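Possible regression after last week's pipeline update?

I re-ran a chain I had predicted before the update to compare outputs. Posting the input and the new output here so someone can diff against the archived version. Not blocking, just want to make sure nothing changed silently.
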Amino acid sequence: MTVKQKECTAQAAFQALIDELPALVARQQVGRLTGGTITPKTLAMDDSRRRGPKESLMMNGKRVYPRAAFVDYLRGKVEGVICVSD
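New output (post-update):
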């Protein structure tokens, strides 16, 4: 896989998230929505350290994030792309 293919794979993954996530992402649902890679507790801790998504709202006492802000936050959490050769 070339570097360009790796970039396209990561971009495709984030585009799929943008296409599939609801307009507002509830903190309590992030574990399910990210396959367990980010937990609600991790997100709460990142918020308290000002490392969480740049935008958030309180709705009915629950923290929610606009989709774009949440996906940008996830992009910032990526440490690298690892591809396994066939």
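Follow-up from reviewer: compared with the archived run. The longest helix spans residues 3-20. Marking as no regression found.
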